[in-house]
């Protein structure tokens, strides 16, 4: 075993909560928004974060009602793709060994108080918090942590995100509070991966019915699910950290943006977690509401099926699609001009971000020439989109812009999540689709695997991503920039825009973040001032 040093050592800070987000699945967020209340690719948009307990004191017996679009298809993110599940459960019901501090962006301790990394970067030794219990009353120990991490590599996990822990060679519980993880090679992404759903800690005796009965160590416990309407969580009275302010959280799910807005306007909810009709913000600007606007890491991607025999397997045709889209006009039309143009799969909050909007400038003549080069004049492309507000709104704009340069577009709206996941994500029965990918630092997950629905994952890009992961931090940034450039230049997809973080809430709700850049919506951050 390598000699242990304290080359990396971080202590957890009480009250540190993670960042937030909510949209898509192993590249998109799976959820099925419906509601009887007048309630992986994406789900609905962005979420929140902050410190546990908010800043208003507490705890209280109050209930907070949060409105969302994109209901989870299940409560089991180990077998069901979609951001709607970790949005609900991660950091709230399930916790991880380490998490991301919202303000600094640094990885800090959560269930691990501290950790050490060996000089060769192959061995991580975590010291776990003592006295932590699961919601079923059993103790959380290193044995549970070992079970949780080892389980990711078994058939129990079926989602593609499990590949993030392929670098793990062994996991050993040395005693109740000491966990040793050994890697096959140095990995820059390993510790960050532990802040995501693959790092969730499970009870060794609590995984029999994850789809319906989640058991975790978090500040809230799962109570009930009225499918198509709401999910209820209650404060975990035995939580090891600061008690959250709200005693009960109701997550209300709505089928469309208008129903979500109406619920806020009629005081049926207290928070709109992500505005699904940005043009409607004027409805709230003159009322007694607070509006939060910032950024997310939710890239709205126009994916292009490049499987052999598909029309978009032709590079020239993919390039034509990119040149045919006026991204500023599209964002102005379908998302009220709110968002950020980025031109790649990297948001500005990532260390390897570069503005790549100039790679394929809007040029209809160039698009027509490339279509002719591909021999694709009049080609019909099937644009199969999920029934999510941004996808539907942007789909009509993409259709119009591509038809202006001589292509035919057949738009199919597929119910989300079930129909879209089966048709597009699983069966790859599409030419183009539109979905927001919100998992943090997900460029490799989305474009590093030819079996993923995006169908890219070339040998060259996979080699670059592997080199970036094992390199020094400085070399990692350079290699990741190179990978992002290659993905863009190859027109592996088109990157329509980056979703904004748009939230509306009662004026006295605190703990709402300006930016939402993580999978979870840390509910313990919310309070009433």
Question: How is this structure best described in words?
Answer:
Keywords: Signal. This is Peptide/nickel transport system substrate-binding protein. With about 525 residues, the protein is α+β, with helices and mostly antiparallel strands. The termini are far apart. It has 3 domains: about 130 residues, D-Maltodextrin-Binding Protein, domain 2; about 100 residues, Dipeptide-binding Protein, domain 1 (Alpha-Beta Complex), CATH 3.90.76.10; about 200 residues, Roll (Dipeptide-binding Protein, domain 3). The chain is built from 13 helices and 20 strands. It is globular.
Please outline the helices and strands.
Layout: E1 22-24, E2 42-45, E3 63-69, H1 84-89, E4 98-100, E5 107-109, E6 112-117, E7 123-128, H2 142-152, E8 168-175, E9 178-183, H3 190-193, E10 220-226, E11 230-235, E12 248-254, H4 257-265, E13 271-272, H5 282-285, E14 290-304, H6 315-324, H7 327-334, H8 364-373, E15 380-386, H9 389-404, E16 408-414, H10 418-426, E17 432-437, H11 443-447, H12 459-470, H13 473-489, E18 493-505, E19 509-510, E20 527-528
Parallel strand pairs: 3-12, 3-13, 15-16
Antiparallel strand pairs: 1-2, 4-5, 6-7, 7-9, 8-9, 10-11, 11-12, 13-18, 14-17, 14-18, 19-20
Helix pairs in contact: 6-8, 7-9, 12-13
Region (Disordered): 30-62
GO molecular function, one term: peptide transmembrane transporter activity
Protein name: Peptide/nickel transport system substrate-binding protein
């Amino acid at each position: 075993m390598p000699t242990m040093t304290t080359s990396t050592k971080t202590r957890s800070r009480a009250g540190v909560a993670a960042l937030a987000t909510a949209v898509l699945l192993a590249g998109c967020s799976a959820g099925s928004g419906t509601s009887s209340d007048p309630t992986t690719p994406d789900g609905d948009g962005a979420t929140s974060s902050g410190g546990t307990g908010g800043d208003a004191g507490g705890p209280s017996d109050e209930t907070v009602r949060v409105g969302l679009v994109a209901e989870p298809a299940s409560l089991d993110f180990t077998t069901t793709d979609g951001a709607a599940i970790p949005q609900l459960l991660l950091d709230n019901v399930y916790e991880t060994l380490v998490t991301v501090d919202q303000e600094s962006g640094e990885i800090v301790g959560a269930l691990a108080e501290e950790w050490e990394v060996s000089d060769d970067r192959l061995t991580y030794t975590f010291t776990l918090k003592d006295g932590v219990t699961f919601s079923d009353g059993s103790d959380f120990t290193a044995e549970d942590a070992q079970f949780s991490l080892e389980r990711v590599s078994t058939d129990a996990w079926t989602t593609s995100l499990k590949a993030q822990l392929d670098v793990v060679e062994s996991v050993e519980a040395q005693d109740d509070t000491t966990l040793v993880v050994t890697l096959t090679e140095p990995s820059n992404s390993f510790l960050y991966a532990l802040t995501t759903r693959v790092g969730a800690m499970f009870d060794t005796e609590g995984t029999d019915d994850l789809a319906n009965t989640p058991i975790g160590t978090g500040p809230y416990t799962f109570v009930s699910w009225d499918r198509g309407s709401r999910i209820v969580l209650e404060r975990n009275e035995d939580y090891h950290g600061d008690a959250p302010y709200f005693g009960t959280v109701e997550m209300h799910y709505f089928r469309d943006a208008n129903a979500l807005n109406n619920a806020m306007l009629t005081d049926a909810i207290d928070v709109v977690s992500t505005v699904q009709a940005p043009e409607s913000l004027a409805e709230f600007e003159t009322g007694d509401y607070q509006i939060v606007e910032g950024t997310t890491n939710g890239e709205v991607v126009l994916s292009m099926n490049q499987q052999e025999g598909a029309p978009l397997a032709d590079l020239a045709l993919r390039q034509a699609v990119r040149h045919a889209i006026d991204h500023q006009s599209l964002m102005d039309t379908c998302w009220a001009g709110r968002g950020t143009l980025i031109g790649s799969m990297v948001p500005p909050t990532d260390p390897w971000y570069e503005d790549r909007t100039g790679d394929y400038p809007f040029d209809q003549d160039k698009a027509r020439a490339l279509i002719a080069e591909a021999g694709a004049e009049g080609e019909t492309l099937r644009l199969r989109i999920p029934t999510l507000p941004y996808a539907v709104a942007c789909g009509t704009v993409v259709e119009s812009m591509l038809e202006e340069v001589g292509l035919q577009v057949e738009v199919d709206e597929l119910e989300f999540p079930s129909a879209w996941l089966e048709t597009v994500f699983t069966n790859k029965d599409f030419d183009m689709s539109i979905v927001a990918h919100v998992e943090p630092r997900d460029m490799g997950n989305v474009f590093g695997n030819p079996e993923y629905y995006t169908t890219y994952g070339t040998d060259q890009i996979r080699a670059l991503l592997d080199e970036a992961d094992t390199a020094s931090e400085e070399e990692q940034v350079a290699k990741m920039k190179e990978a992002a450039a290659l993905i863009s230049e190859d027109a592996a997809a088109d990157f329509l825009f980056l979703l904004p973080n748009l939230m509306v809430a009662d004026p006295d709700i605190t703990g709402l973040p300006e930016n939402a850049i993580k999978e979870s919506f840390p509910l313990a951050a919310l309070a009433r001032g």
